[in-house]
Structures
1.
Amino acid sequence: MTHTLLAAFALAAALPALAQSASDRKIAATVTAETGRHVELLERLVNVNSGSLNLPGVTKVGEMVRAELAPLGFQVEWIDMTATGRAGHLIATHTGNGRGKRILLIAHLDTVFEPESPFQKFVREGERATGPGIGDDKGGIVVIVAALRAMQAAGTLEGADIKIVLTGDEERTGAPLAIARRDLIEAGRWADVALEYENLAREDGADKGTVARRSSANWTLTTTGKTGHSSNVFGPGLGYGAAYELARILDEFRRTLPEPNLTFNIGVMAAGTPATLAENGYQVSAGGKTNIIAESAVARGDLRALTPEQEAKTRAAMQAIAAAGNLPGTSARLVFQDGYPPMSPTAGNRALLTKLNAVNRDLKLPEMAEMDPARRGAADSAFVAADVDTLAGLGVAGGGAHAEGEWIDLPSIPLQALRSAVFITRLSKEKR
């Protein structure tokens, strides 16, 4: 047995001592007994490439998860999404007694690592394991499976009304967005509570609760100018050119728009005669000479805000800057592309964290403070947060997401499974 598995088992062995009620003790005992099983499940999931554009790989991971959920009494269906350019979503529904809260669990099957990436395999490294998507979000899927299996063993799953939505395109959403997120949004309207299983937030060794996530929208700024010999730049005939107009607008963004929880990054830009943005939206090209005034310029970036109001206000301000005060001889056009909405820090979300902290106290675990939303990315939970109280970041602890060397702490699997199983059990018994 590897050192990593020994460490995972050592933590799991301590879990029953933390539990209070008979069902909690059974949950903890099951998590302990199945720690090795779930590390092995994670390894199998990680070793199947499921980059967002690898449709067969995403589908295969979905079938692997179906095999875990169907024996637990879930009705599992595959929602084909090839019309959006993606594989599809796995939706699993467990019908309980109809008396308690309806609970939605959210995670995703895909990763950012496509088949051409050199980073493809699960590797154990001491108390850590590395692998593509190991934390984002295959570790989260394993926590869900482990928690539900523990609930079944304790007899608390039988009466619970639970729906699981595992999207197949979280890292690179299919289009149109209205179709790609239709089923997730419908599930959010069905639910009374939503729990999302991306990476657990951890700072200075302390676990944090995620009650808010910022939005993620893209924007494209295009400017045009009159081209000609550079000796006439700034003059009445040719004006300033597209490059200076692009710089004016971007610098005005920088000087006037910053405020707490708001960012607007410039990811790529170019100016020249001409400058063009590729159809994929991620590459630009330009040509020109030092003695030619730039005819066109383009910049593409993102916008992240904490609330719908903050995002709407910022979009309007950016449009006003682009439209007003154009330098002589230039014009500008700013276009936004909708993406992930914000998951605002509502009273309902904070109430869920309070309930989770009650679980932590009963399990003799440290309470979890709120994570700074500016330190978290966007996620699928944002699509349901407008309709249902939502708590995010309930997956495994780790780091390096979206980069080669992505890793997790293996002992966080049983810990998070215990937290979730007890938490879901209690929520399922609350009256609607």
2.
Amino acid sequence: MRLALLALAASVGGAALVPTATAEVPTAAPVRGPIVQMFQWPWESVARECTDFLGPKGFGAVQVSPPQEHVVLGDQGYPWYQDYQPVSYQLESRRGNREQFAAMVRTCNDAGVEIYVDAVVNHMSGSGSVGSGPGSGGSTYEKYDYPGIYADADFHGCRRDIANYQDKWEVRNCELVGLADLATESEHVRTTLTAYLNDLVGMGVSGFRVDGVKHMPPEDVGAIFGAVQNVPGTGARPYVFQEVIADGTTTAGEYAGNGDVTEFGYYGVVANAVRDGSLAQLANLPERMSLPSDQAVVFIDNHDTQRSSPILTYKDGVTYDLAVAFELAYPYGTPQLISGFAFDDPDAGPPAEADGTTQAASCDNSAWSCEHRRPIIAGMAGFHGAVQGTELTNWWDNGGGQVAFGRGDKGFVAINREGGELSQTFQSSLPAGTYCDVMSGELKDGACTGTTVEVGADGRFDATVAPNSGLALHIGAKL
């Protein structure tokens, strides 16, 4: 089976043998700006982008790719998924070493951008990596034998691929495409994983995206992450959000006691509506989701869906940008964006040197897709921060592909996915004044580089929105 399926689920469980704990659940989105997954970006490139763009534009957090030592699959062209096969917990990956990682965390924190690590805690390397050693940090290993870390007894006894996804025991105990499935119910495994996570938090990491959670019992996840220390300097609990691809056997809500959960239903509903020009159906979006807003992390695409089940991706141009704009404007869930690299082969790894180490990421290089720098998406990052905590107000639609809505008295957005112009007098709750449309420009040195809109004392304004475009006003971009 193709290893590109790895990150779509990652597996394990069993009866708890040691006391369990539940991670403390954040009561609100942890940051004002959105989370952006800088997929496969090297540490030095992430640090530079935090300072130069992400912090100034209002992005709240970066989700970085797994930083631990991983297999090196040179005979397979160094595919992206090798990073999801750990062989140790030393911070030596193709994106950089421990010192570079620590410097990135400091730099991004100084820029007001938190770092969330993509945490692989369910498994180690797989059958497809046998004979591929050493790892990215030079470690020798064999499947089920990682010297000084894990031995044979630390893995589940069901050493075959999951065959029946309707059997919860099998989903949590057998192997996903040959990956060595950790016995996360054991005290040694839990202690080892928590030590790795504490090492990261001690460097200033503020949270974790937990990979493949449905393949672990909720009590195992709670015990591991519940034992992680508070973030130094802030005393806050690390933010935890869990990748759960729900189905008839596993629900997202089973894991909500440990932290937030990815709402996979969201991207299908929203991306299809934007693609098909049926935006009016999104008025009551929360009613169609399985999780309440304060427990959900939402996305239009991520590194898995881009490759396995794409609806809209960076390849779809402004239609994709408008879907992300809706995600950042509508008050449901914590938004997660992605910024990765261009690909045609879904297995392909990032731009790399001859030895497989990742080249510096730059948005001047078309090999990096840099979705976060697209003008509509970058402008809406600031919109999201400006409207946090406000209700949906003043909804309007034409029954099809044209919608508009407000966020209390802090913002207003209109999106047009039809072939004709949307010319309308809109009713908002914004204070009177002149606003910069952040989908077409930005407020810079007291002037707007795009379109301006005059809002009257009654909150009303006239605007024309071109086909396949949008308009967004918020109080942080008021002249």
3.
Amino acid sequence: MLGLRQNLAQFLLLVAVNALVGGTLGQERTVLPLLASQTFHLGLYTSALTYILAFGLSKAAMNYFAGTLSDRYGRKPVLVAGWLVAIPIPLMLIFGPTWAWIVAANVLLGTSQGLTWSTTVIMKMDLVGPRQRGLAMGLNEAAGYLGVAVTALATGYLASAYGLRPAPFLLGAAYIALGLGLSVLRVRETHHHARAEASQHVNAHDQAHAGLTTKEIFTLTSFKDRSLSSVSQAGMVNNLNDGLAWGLFPVLFAGAGLSLHQIGILAAVYPAVWGAGQLFTGAASDRWGRKWFITAGMLVQAVGLAVVAGGDTFAIWLVAAVLLGLGTAMVYPTLLAAIGDVAHPTWRARSVGIYRLWRDGGFAVGALLSGLIADLYGIPAAIGAVAALTALSGLVVALRMRGNDHTTT
């Protein structure tokens, strides 16, 4: 049966699993930019951001394959495979003698995140059905990014107390072991729920598109469908600015004389507000619709980035981190729910994977764009440019996305 109440135990288990997925990513948020500059002495921002480029490209590719593989082989095998890929990552981050090892670890991290996070999204959509999709995505993304935030804060403390290596990455190793164990022993397959929903679909537009090939789904999601393509570009720009925040914010803060503890707080506040906010924004978009939540969220993000670019104190940057987290909370679950609204259940997993391909490709674009601008003109200029791009993305959604692609309106 479809519905949150009917599948509550399995849903909550998947929420916990995604918190561990987020924690595995969060082990890097505070420490790795400082590791690049202080341990490996990488001077150019573009060089230091190679790990985000590697992460973004591998995660984007795996997002695409995760949807296709989960349709073909089931959701659970893909989830377990993602955890297996993650096993070597903490060891490579701890013992890597050169920067190439760190980049290679981030290829594995992106691969793992693409398989695990994509699959938890798809499985929750399978379980809840159409009417609570925004709530489901809000809970999923809240768990993941609160996991990022708590771990970023914890690793900042561990790094200040015990050094940049190995202590912060031991936490990631524990998350991977627990996530793998839960996924193997407790998580159940959900693909049959999607088939049940597909059998109940009566929307004429969806039925006309029920038998699309993967190539046709890619074209529809990326370019042809006004709503799906609007969501895809907004997701890409959202993660473009997140890649900027991940790679350059700690360097900017350290250059301004902030302590490692203060940098850890700022690195945690942004995903913490982002994570907690999604507990409310996902469900609110179920009630009020997706389009204007996405537009407003992109504009709030742009304001937050502009405040970072113009700021020079911990207090100002703390306000900016809250704004950036709030804007992202408005956007993140709503984008995923919007994909679920439009895509037919028989190819929803593939459409989610294609959307996440574009979205997480934003990490790679953000690493290259912000690194090049920072090398040429400084970090504030890079942040200002991305702020303008984020505002433009919000306007594209306002002008292009249909306003009636919402299951409960």
